[in-house]
Amino acid sequence: MEKLNIHQNIKKKLNSFLSKKRIPHIIFYGQYGSGKRHVLFYFLNKIYKENKEHIKKYVIYVNCAHKQGIRFFREELKFFARTHIQNNRGEFFKSIVLLNADKLTTDTQSALRRCIELYSESTRFFIIVEDKEKLLMPILSRFCDIYIPLPLINGERKSLYRYNLESIKETLYEKERVRWLHQKIFEKKMESCNDCLILSEELYNKGYSLLDLLPTIFKIDSIKERDKYLLKILFHEIRVEFRNESLLIFLFVFLVLLRPKIDLENINAM
Where is the secretion signal located (predicted)? Predict the structure, then answer.
């Protein structure tokens, strides 16, 4: 990814913040694989002049999808934010990076808002989300938001994850993983929810995720072509709502292997 010359217009805008020495709190939002982290890490390296010791000391990363609650923001995050730093007229500050902040509950977001209000003088908050509309308005009003579209690579808008997968030659190990996955999915018939539970746990413990399973939908002859696309759309929509990957895998196994003829028109009712 480092070799890619992407999002230059956005980087130019970030560089202007640096040159003016007026760096706001920033929300980077955009779809999965658009390069939000790539842009943020570029910016942090610029802020701290690629000094790894400063980045390690003055930057904290918080994955909000890992059930970070009110207590974390009221205690641990505040402790980091209020620790002393030599702040030369706002030119040097600590940075708090919040990944998947759209997963926070309303109460936790309120605690975060209070933390932002108290420590904005010596701390900058950088948020990465797919959907900024899930954040409270009082938080949005305190941030500069920057949309990160899919990068233009060789004339095509493409997810960085897809680009990286296409760039990596498939190893024997990867081929064996695909073969094992297909064997489990296509050779064993699901007859009960218990069968689905056993298979989903086995897949999860082997390190598979929903993204590994989705391509297999198109290899199942018993599912109509139209329903294959409906299933893929369904799983992409609900994926962001699940914090438990094993439960998401179970739902895939249940819908695709045990009940492939379920009425997809009413599936959202589940």
Answer: none
85 backbone dihedrals φ, ψ, rounded to 5°: -145, 145
Q: How far is the C-alpha of 164 from the C-alpha of 161, rounded, in Å?
A: 5
**Residue 92: C-alpha distances to residues 67, 128, 143, 196, 230 (Å):** 30, 22, 19, 53, 50
User: Is 27 in contact with 116 (CB distance < 8 Å)?
Assistant: no
Tell me which residue range forms the domain holding 25. 8-157
Say what the pTM is.
Answer: 0.64
**166 found inside a domain:** no
Domain match, 142 and 248 both: no
Q: Which two tokens stand for residue 85?
A: 């730093």
The one-letter amino acid code at 63 reads: N
Residuewise pLDDT in 10s, the chain (270 residues): 446 789 999 999 999 999 999 999 999 999 989 999 999 999 999 999 999 999 999 999 998 887 667 778 778 887 888 776 655 554 579 999 999 998 898 999 998 999 999 999 889 999 999 999 999 999 999 999 999 999 998 888 989 988 887 776 666 677 888 888 888 888 778 888 898 999 999 999 999 999 899 988 888 888 888 888 888 888 888 888 887 889 999 999 988 888 765 554 444 444
Shared domain check, 114 and 64: yes
Q: Distance (Å, rounded) from C-alpha 21 to C-alpha 18?
A: 5
Number of domains, the chain: 2
Of 55, 76, 217, 219, give the one whose Cα is nearest residue 126: 55
From the list 182, 150, 200, 156, the residue with the least C-alpha distance to 30 is 150
For residue 243, tell me if it sits in a domain.
yes
> d(Cα 187, Cα 209) in Å, to the nearest integer?
19
Residues 223 and 89 grouped into a single domain: no
